[in-house]
Model the fold of this input.
Amino acid sequence: MNTMTPLLEIRGLHIDATLPNGSTAHLLQDISLTLARGQVLGLIGESGAGKSTLGLTALGAVRGGAYVRAGEVRLGGIDLLTGGPALLRDIRGRRVAYVAQSAASAFNPAFRLIDQVIETSVQRRLMSKADARRRAIELFAKLELPSPETFGEKFPHQASGGQLQRAMTAMAMCARPDLIVFDEPTTALDVTTQIEVILAMRQAIREEGMAGLYISHDLALVAQMADAIMVLRHGRMVETGSVKQVIEAPATEYTRQLIAARGLRHAVQPERPPLLEMRGVTAGYGNVNIVENLSLVVPEGRTLAVVGESGSGKSTLGKVICGLLPAKAGRLVFAGRPLEPDMHRRPLDDLRDIQIVHQNPDMALNPRQRVREIIGAPLGRFQGLSGAAREAAVAALLEQVELKPELADRRPGALSGGQKQRVCIARALAARPRLIVCDEVTSALDPLVADGVLKLLARLQAEEGVSYFFITHDFGAVEALADHVAVMRNGAIVATGPTAQVLQPPYHPYTEALIRAVPELRLGWLDAVIAARKTRSQDAFPDRRPS
Amino acid sequence: MSLSDATARPAAPSRLAGLPVALAALFCLACLVCVIGADWIAPYGEADLVAMPWQAPDLAHPLGTDQLGRDMLSRIIFGARTSIGLSLAIVTLAFAVGGALGLAAVTLGGWADAVISRIVDLFMALPPLVLALLALSVSGTSLVTLTLTAAFIASLRVFRLTRSLGIDIAARDFVDVARLRRDSTARIMWREILPNAAIPLISEFGLRFVFAFLFVASLSFLGLGVQPPMADWGGMVRENVGALNYGRLTPLVPAGFIALLAISVNLIGDWLVARRGGGR
Done:
């Protein structure tokens, strides 16, 4: 093969899709890129920017209903768009492979991992079964999976999310493809798990000398993984260049905004008396206690942020406060009065005073109701409003969350992610609550959209004096909003205090591990982490490491 | 995520894509007209002996005659009234009862769900035909008891389906939000859960409709369903089965109508589902 031709060459690519209502959507417009062997290109953009659509074209694939309007896609000089099904079948898996976002759903639960990892190589007769197994074990070791010799004998449910994501990388690499498309491979993982996975992936990519398309909405993360970056928005290319060039001297306003996102800082506020006190709370399901003997205070008109990895019991705590999951032991005190653990036994006033905003607005909004009904329901229940008065209150609330009143006629399906989350906030505000439990309200949103929601929450707190119980795993959000922080691990508080104190050195070791795992937007951050790990013989948290 | 090979624009959907649904709708409409106006449309009476048995189709009897010499076309028209009317009543009743119980079970949860579900399990453990025979032999074979029995049996499956659909929906956050503002159980059932389960329930309605049809036919076969001389499509197949021995295709006429109706109802159901599911 001619080494002068670039590995992947996309020229003037336009991809359209026919929507169910018959109209045409432009998914990609006039995209061109070249990728040399051994190079990693990061594709950045918010959801709907066309990153995944572009990544899929490198496999010669489009989502159902989409088609190529113009342009060409060449892999090693071969035209993928006119090659036909037989050519594509030959290319996929052998020359280009794919790592999906959710490895847990990408593996077949009925087969052992190693059999799935080597399947392509063996099926296509690229290697003998024994060779393929040796290769898989070598890759498991390279990806720092625990006991690589026997790891592959596990079934998918026996491995953790981070391990599965690495196993999927091994599956993609097994047949030694020239190019791997990584589609948000760590988005579903915790920060501490994510860093293990990106470390392993980066090393493996380097050692194997493969090229990659790395798709993510996290600029800081892509800056560590890629050699060059392409920023996409609404299906068009915004800018492209080397990582250094894009993050140090961005050429467009949009990229500058992306880089500046996460820069919000919350001013220190005077102390206020407690609104909600939890004393020795124990809660869980059946005989399993998720949180045990835990005490916390949420001050009036202030924000308490609770940070921790998934499974640490943060959301359980939110449910305990709402009364959805009655505490088994301990006391809740709200505004000086004891609070019933079970929502069914709380007076309506207590239900009104405590509202919740969920992580995923798609689950939190009834897709069959219009915004008018969604926001109107609490207005009717808690304020006794109906008819024109309710209508006016809905419009006022929409305005308060910076949405146009016309949106009242829409159903959630016709709203963007940020708009949906604002509707959820408006629904909570409709009750005129004193405390809002915010359960990971920004983690399903794109960075710029999340910033907007955080600003809105800060403004509403200043206007309405509402307190937030702010559950998150995102330290950027904590710094933007929180007066106090509690760091949770395995159902217990490991550190708590004013934000400035908890997030400044000297840290609690676990807090430090969490903070260090968040990718920073500077060149060479990951290399520094790798270097630091090599000098440290022992990790501070051996149980997070593969044993 | 469904993927396909990246190629140029796919062929535009044929203009005839909507044709089967249109034909199905036309057929259902014709059946509905028969249900309402059988007395005026049918050329002969339901039980009138007008010719020799098993006559071949001619101008006077476009679909021939049956085993007693009654006009097949007239009996198909009257049969539509019995069969479709009966099935519609059965399925509507089954969905009202089974659907409401299913929604109540998921919304109330806990012991209420357990009690209703175990009782339903108990009845589902019995073969439906045996259950029906028992009920009909105890209470006699009137159209009312027939409808109630068949509706009860169908409602068991409707309950199962509604409950399994509803459990997934009841676990979503917006139902928690409704509970947290103390919405009534009925309101949560109708406003929050049912609209989200409606699409699969609509397609199930079409399927159940056809099953109710066949169930009534099999009861008729045992002499416990529609009583002669009343015409119903399932019964007509049985009455005329003997014609096959004489090289006549008479029983295929009602059988063909049953098949046509089954296909039509399901085509329309699928179309509704595709339209509501894909539109938003």
Remarks:
- Chain A touches chain B through 46 residues (CB under 8 Å).
- The longest helix of chain A spans residues 191-208.
- Confidence is low (pLDDT under 50) at residues 537-547 of chain A.
- The radius of gyration of chain A is 25 Å.
